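Reminder: ligand-aware prediction takes two inputs, not one.
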Amino acid sequence: MALVIAGTPGVGKTSVAQRLSQRTGRRYLNLANLIVENQLYAGFDEERKAYVVDTRRCREYLSQVLTCREVLDTHVVEAVPPSKVSQVFVLRLNPIQLRERLRARGYPERKIQENVEAEVLGVVLVDAVNHFGEERVCEVDTTGLSVDEVVQVILDALAREEIMKNLRPGSVDWLEKYHHLLH
Ligand SMILES: Nc1ncnc2c1ncn2[C@@H]1O[C@H](COP(=O)(O)OP(=O)(O)OP(=O)(O)O)[C@@H](O)[C@H]1O
Ligand SMILES: [Mg+2]
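Here is what comes back for the chain with adenosine-5'-triphosphate:
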């Protein structure tokens, strides 16, 4: 079954998923690229300068092409068919550090604020739990870890149930400390 690496934009999905692909021999798939290449969008949001994903068509497309030997990199978890996925790793990052990373990328302030708020609230985690069910979802706090260290946590979790248990949804909570970042 395929593995999914999810998380708020900028948390490190692509870096981690590509390295995980190298370490496991699984094929790396970037869902954002697939959506553009195969026109799996419903339109373009001018304000956000982003495609609006057609999640139903995207799921249908992935149901056809996934062989279950992939690492899928996405922040739109609803676009992935649950029947093809064994485990979802939602990467989390301290929102202050996420803000710095997005600033370094030159993102507009409004987009940075939206993504920081999404990370504080754990939007992608909640979406993933709703879509895949709690048993298949875990979260990895990447704060202070290198890409290799994050990949090692994931490999250890896949190998040992007791490590996976420590990554259960709810293990990361930025709300208490960082609610002041919400507008
Ligand atoms: N563990 C890490 N430690 C330090 N920097 C990192 C780490 N992971 C990723 N980065 C850096 O953070 C930036 C964002 O990483 P990356 O592109 O992998 O994120 P992403 O989640 O795929 O973002 P997007 O959703 O926009 O595609 C890059 O400059 C990358 O080099
Ligand atoms: Mg990426």
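The mean pLDDT is 96. The domain at 2-181 is CATH 3.40.50.300 (Rossmann fold). We will return to this case in the review session.
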